[in-house]
Design a protein that fits this description.
CATH class of chain A: Mainly Alpha
Number of helices of chain A: 11
Strand content of chain B: 15-25%
Distance between the termini of chain B: 32 Å
Number of domains of chain A: 1
Number of helices of chain B: 10
Shape of chain B: globular
Largest sheet of chain B: 6 strands, mixed
Oligomer: heterodimer
Strand content of chain A: under 5%
Helix content of chain B: 25-40%
CATH architecture of chain A: Orthogonal Bundle
Strand order of the largest sheet of chain B: 6-7-8-3-9-10
CATH topology of chain A: ABC transporter involved in vitamin B12 uptake, BtuC
Order of helices and strands of chain B: EEEHEEHEHHHHEHEHEEHH
Structural class of chain B: alpha/beta
Helix content of chain A: over 70%
Largest sheet of chain A: 2 strands, antiparallel
Distance between the termini of chain A: 36 Å
Largest interface: A-B, 27 and 36 residues
Chain lengths: 290, 256
């Protein structure tokens, strides 16, 4: 029972984590929050789903479609909602992305209808049974992909010149360009990376729950944002840790206390941690970000 | 041969004229001193060349092309690199990271292939690491590579600033008061460094209050006063220029 709940929690947490690192990347660089990240997740999921259906079950191409569409949406979001307001109130991008998120939901609703679409393949067919713990193939797949992407992101940020430029931009945007770093480009890269992770996440989540619908990104993106804050927003490792713990806490709460109070319990714990440590689990007070 | 040319460069700050119709020719391979009393417009001129400020009027040519419309980072890409009077440090970065940053423009792997570690990403990253350590050694900071830059002494921070600038492989290096706050022996080391950099074929523009330093290394000196160019010539010509003596040196202080 315990291992079962932890496996479920890690799966859930992995889904949160791919969104949470995106929030962290964007917030780390711009000190602004995007509210349409959940919709980028959703359109990634839809483009992946319909590509897979159209091509008769080609999962890699589905993932590629999710990546391309969500990355493009992310770059567009930065252009219209963030770049014009770089030195202005962070409320403008917040309002614009809220508007964008409503429009994207409505657009998908118009195009594909309100009904929940199932994933056309049975992804739970393969099961691994260890004692009394059952791990389905999709859980292994979700956790595996998520861990792989996190490792790639970590190596990118800490061991490449682009990562160095990202960190430099997040620390002192006004000094980075004098070093020859195109900060506009770096910000676009941050949005692109955050968004393509969201798109992959959308397709994974849709397949895991076998449910694709216009509002599928709303609750999960709020949870991911909470997870990122919990772990220390602005720090990538913090966002990963926060999102994974939120998933596990939720799952344990559902298993041992009450399934209907899972969110209440998870958020209560989150609020208490933040009361004691406002910068989050791994967050440092405004020093190293990204 | 001309490397950079300022034509009629003016700069107003809300009606106050900081620079008025400055013409200046920077010769390839030279050390060009820029002097003048406080408020003469030296740093403003630097900021216009490096792209931190937009000029109000005039044109700026680099290797024959107008570059006034280029961003800071694009000018770094062309080889115009500057150091700062007040060092711009990145709080959590190590000394080595600061130098590595200077290489950003010189590597070719794009970010997508960097995420996937494709092509020559790995080779390029180790090249950057190696070259950065080499530069640190050159300025005598190799033993501080892993330390946080903010913990360096003032003199060492200035050296780091120079190593960082050299990492970008400048054609034109703008040194903004590199000797400020240094003691005498540090100034002598700096002098050696400037000569070494110059010997590598890098053209230098030097803003400096230490008049002896400027007179000693510069082959061409431009004198600014109240935003206008009042004289230009070799160190000897400047020393004996009556306008300079009256306007500037005549105040009784050689170091202003």
């Amino acid at each position: 029972m315990l291992t079962q709940q932890i496996i479920n929690g890690l799966t859930l947490g992995s889904l949160y984590a791919l969104l949470a690192v995106g929030f962290s990347l964007i917030c780390g660089i711009l000190n602004m929050i995007t509210f349409s990240h959940g919709e980028i997740f959703m359109i990634g999921a839809f483009s992946g789903l319909y590509t897979i259906i159209a091509l008769g079950g080609n999962l890699p191409l589905g993932l590629a479609a999710a990546v391309v569409v969500s990355a493009a949406a992310g770059i567009l979001t930065e252009r219209i909602a963030f770049r014009p307001f770089r030195n202005e109130s962070p409320l403008s991008p917040a309002l614009i992305t809220i508007g964008l998120s409503i429009s994207l939901q409505a657009g998908i609703l118009l195009l594909f209808g309100a009904d929940t679409k199932p994933f056309p393949y049975n992804v739970s067919a393969h099961k691994f049974i260890l004692g009394n713990t059952v791990i389905s193939g999709i859980e292994v797949f979700v956790i595996g992909i998520s861990i792989l992407l996190m490792i790639m992101l970590h190596l990118f940020i800490h061991y490449t010149r682009w990562g160095l430029a990202l960190r430099a931009t997040s620390q002192r945007i006004e000094a980075a360009d004098i070093m020859g770093i195109s900060t506009n480009r770096i910000i676009a890269i941050a949005f692109c990376t955050a968004s393509l992770l969201a798109g992959i996440d959308g397709l994974l989540a849709g397949a895991y729950y076998s449910a694709f619908y216009p509002r599928m990104g709303v609750a999960i993106s709020l949870k991911a944002l909470a997870g990122a804050t919990f772990g220390g927003i602005g720090s990538i490792q913090g966002a990963m840790a926060g999102a994974l713990s939120l998933g596990v806490i939720e799952s344990l709460a559902a298993g041992y206390i009450s399934a209907s109070y899972r969110d209440v319990i998870a958020f209560t714990i989150l609020i208490f941690v933040l009361l004691i440590k406002p910068s989050g689990l791994l967050g440092q007070m405004r020093e190293e970000k990204v | 041969m001309v490397l950079a040319e300022l034509k009629n460069i003016s700069k107003d700050f809300g009606g106050i004229t900081a620079l008025k119709e400055i013409d200046m020719v920077v010769r390839q391979g030279g050390i060009h001193g820029l002097i003048g009393p406080n408020g003469a417009g030296k740093t403003t001129l630097f900021n216009i060349i490096s792209g931190n400020y937009d000029a109000t009027g005039g044109d700026l040519l680099f290797e024959g092309n107008s570059i006034l419309k280029l961003r800071n980072d694009e000018r770094v890409g062309l080889g115009i690199v500057r150091t700062f009077q007040n060092i711009r440090l990145f709080p959590s970065f190590s000394v080595l990271d600061h130098v590595k940053m200077g290489f950003h423009r010189r590597a070719s792997a794009n970010w997508l292939s960097s995420i996937l570690w494709l092509n020559n990403t790995k080779k390029e990253e180790s090249w950057i690491e190696e070259e950065s350590r080499h530069l640190l050694k050159k300025v005598g900071l190799e033993s501080f590579a892993q330390q946080q830059a903010k913990n360096l002494s003032y003199g060492n921070q200035r050296r780091l600033e120079i190593a960082r600038a050299l990492a970008a492989k400048p054609k034109l290096l703008l040194l903004d008061e590199p000797a400020a706050g240094l003691n005498e022996s540090e100034v002598r080391t700096l002098l050696e460094q400037i000569r070494e950099i110059h010997a590598e074929g890098i053209t230098i523009i030097l803003v400096e209050h230490d008049m002896n330093l400027v007179m000693e290394v510069s082959d061409q000196i431009t004198v600014l006063s109240h935003g206008q160019k009042i004289a230009e010539g070799s160190a000897n010509e400047i020393r004996n220029n009556p306008i300079v003596i009256r306007e500037y040196l005549g105040t009784g202080k050689i170091e202003c």
